[in-house]
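$ fold --in a.seq
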Amino acid sequence: MSVDESQDSATGAPARRTGTAAGELEGLAEQSRALAAGSVTSTALVRRSLERIEATQGTVNAFRRVRPEAALTEAAEADRRLAAGERLPLLGVPVAVKDDTDVAGEPTAFGCAGEFPPKERDSEVVRRLRAAGAVIVGKTNACELGQWPFTEGPAFGNTCNPWNLAHTPGGSSGGSAAAVAAGLVAAALGTDGAGSVRIPAAWSHLVGIKPQRGRISTWPDPEAFQGITGIGPLARTVEDAALLLDVAAGNHAGDLHRPPAIAAHEAVRRDPGRLRIALSWKAATTFTRKPLHPDVRAAVTDVARTLVRLGHFVEEAEPDYGLVGLAFVPRATVGVGEWAARVPDRSLLDRRTRGSARLGRLLSGPVLRRARAAERRQQQRVGALFGPYDVLLTPTTATPPPRIGTLAKMSGWRTDQAMIAACPYAWPWNVLGWPGVSVPAGFSADGLPLGAQLLGPAHGEPRLISLAAQLEAELRWYEHRPPAHPARVDGAVVSRGE
């Protein structure tokens, strides 16, 4: 379904905006430039972000922890530094991180219920954000230990999709995606262990980058979830996502994976050249049904046609995934078990989490070692596609975003079945450790966001980012914003201002 000005009326479909009101600075790069020019203060931007967070907690519910006093203090310090002539990439810009990321003085509950002690130190990625001058306004909601493509749980309630509050924004980085889509922050970090940045990007009409494994440090963990999970940005534009990626990228001495540096932001304005692009509808083998929703197929087909118009060669071709799922399950479940062991009161964990942790204990040892040893062969098998082709194009998900509660109360087996059916395309790239970018691909007939996924071989972020930026210049997806939603304050319903 194309999205145009005819859908701007009160029909429930997305609105199109051709610009922002005077004084509105919605983009990460835009805010950084305005701060450096002295046309806005960090205190004003941070206060606006905090006010929007407060106004939408009763509806969108994007944040687990908010730092109003600390963030305003940091904003005042950023204003002092700016006035003194200091310039840094994000000096004074408000951003958010996910609830699995350590921020000094805040607990890291990762979607779990119970009392968690505050962390004494920032994680390496937060240290890098602060070194670039960013102000962290809070930590966003994530489902329990990042296991599912929804962001719901007894510890924090339901995080809702700003495009339609009856639907999920995805998961597990759903809080970060909802925060950006609703305009609470210009960009946020998430983590991606089976598509957990790309899935909410697709379902929230955002750009989401899963970088090369190790591109952004996971320290204090040498690696996360046995190497399948990485940290990545969510933003409305490719430029903003690339800027946040550059700021966050880098390694700690204790990291197990340390890829060579890239310049993501430079790639935004680089012509990708004429590329050979494989369009794939095939999902990796899981021995389960994975029907592709017709609206998703139509949207991704439209993206492919746009790529052809831009001069690229596109044809259908399928990667040879083999039985890559046999390597994913041990790594994922062992990772769940390792994280569950940190939880102060494990009796509060979801029954599905306890089941995954038990399975992880069974699959650790020899099974896990064999799964990890198979990675090189899997990279060679799938990587054969990148001889004749430069980029792989797939749907990001097989369906539009489900309604809130669709998966939350299922059994473990039924949750796995439903999750695989809705999101079969993202997780193999976590096993491979390679980069991928989800870009907005339009909307379903019901006005729900859909995404397309650009996938590449090892260290291929610059090409993917250049291609995504070229698509963005043609499709201008950032012009479409979700509707404003009423906010609940002390039991009363008030309008949330834009």
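$ fold --in b.seq
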Amino acid sequence: MEFDLHMALVILAAAAATFATRIGGYILITRMKSIPPRMEAALNAVPAAVLTTLVAPAFFIGGWESKLALIVALFIGLRFSHTWMLVAAWIVVMTWRHAGGL
């Protein structure tokens, strides 16, 4: 493989844009005396949005073991700690795969 200057410049530009957006948000928030309620609500919604972007593709594209594991994890997570939720989902996937996909 040979060095591609164009691709290196694209990667550097993407890195600079990513850094600028991250540092820009930090600078903006630190300069504010107080965070407006709407902005605080938006910032509080970020973890749920990130989790949704990670889980939704696994549910819709994954196999039946993924769908069942996510449903089990949902119900276990409503009642017990995150550790038990992960253990339950792992057991579902491993049992499904060990049984040959039923």
